[in-house]
Amino acid sequence: MLRLIGVILCAMLGPQIVQASPIRLKDLVEFDGVRTNDLVGYGLVVGLSGTGDGLRNAPFTEEIMVNVLERLGVNVTGEQFRPKNVAAVIVTASLPPFARAGSPIDVTVSAIGDASSLLGGTLIMTPLNAADGEIYAVAQGTIIAGGVTAQGDAAEVTQGVPTAGVIPSGATVEREVAFDLNALTSLRLALRTPDFTTASRIEAVINADFGRHVAMMLDSGTVQLDIGATHMPSPAHALGRIENLLVEPERKARVVVDQASGTIVMGEDVRISRVAVSQGNLTLRIEEAPLVSQPNPFSPGQTVVVPRTDVGIEQEPGIGLAEVSGGTSLSEVVAGLNALGVAPRDMIDILKSIKASGALHAEFIVR
What we know:
- The chain has 7 helices and 23 strands.
- Mean pLDDT is 79; it is low at 1-18.
- By secondary structure, the protein is an alpha+beta fold.
- Strands 3-4-5-9-7-6 form a 6-stranded antiparallel barrel. Strands 2-10-12-11 form a 4-stranded antiparallel sheet. Strands 15-14-23 form a 3-stranded mixed sheet, with helices on one face.
- The protein has helices at residues 2-13, 59-71, 196-210, 227-230, 235-242, 330-339, 344-356, and strands at residues 23-24, 29-31, 37-46, 86-95, 104-111, 122-129, 135-142, 144-151, 156-173, 186-191, 215-219, 222-226, 246-247, 254-258, 263-266, 271-272, 275-288, 291-293, 304-306, 309-324, 328-329, 360-361, 363-366.
- The protein has 3 domains: 2-16 and 254-286 and 311-366, no CATH class; 37-173, no CATH class; 180-247.
- 20% of the residues lie in helices and 40% in strands.
- A hairpin with a 4-residue loop joins β14 and β15 (263-266).
């Protein structure tokens, strides 16, 4: 029955699953050594309109402010000051591959104290370090905050996240990553989703493009390219030639469900063996409505509370015992369940039960 409903619904709405199309090689793999590097720094934002850190709650803000002023030749030792227009922040950025000295990069600024907003603030010169402890960039500039806060005596409204913002092109690269691409004699292509079939297809497409054996699959996640066998002037020329080659990727049968939102995502290769499905909701309702019994005025007796209980069991409409024939696709089953009015969360429970029975042939992921 479910298969019939699914077929009818698919015929009415058109094809529900699009066949896999070839994807560019650059969208399937990462080139070994061609990668970004994360940078982080600790800095100070000034120029805030009374929305900065409370220095009593964030003593590290006062410490960095003193250090900055002393570097500028201002002696504040022993001085007592409590400004509200400064905030300590963490600055993060990503250093792109082959970034050269003087190149601008974007940075993200996030408050780490009790500042209520970074709107309108200016980040003071902040060095950005990589994992090796070396400084690779320096950030400075006006922050574009991601939200705004309005506050009155009895109410406060916050839209977005005013304690974090960005500075487009706010950092300048000062040191280049030591990586000589031209010195490589071979290059590994790392698949973002490891799969033996996809790696084999990548090997075949590259070899067919060059007309000789230049690529070899090492495992499900790696294909090695022999730069010398390509007869290209440099590794960069070889990568520029192969990165736009089209490959049809293969993927595992997988079902992903999100219980919080009731979302179900499935692949086209998911199949269900012969199985019977029955679903229904049983609701137990108990209501207490106590009745107060009070005697007439000046009469003997006392006030008592008489219990009144209303108990009921309701069986909500569900689907009866329905049989799914072998080889049915999951999309047809879900379409049939939708046609029967099954709620998304009930549908997730049904899919869990089908998986537990061993009839759902796919990786089942619950988030």
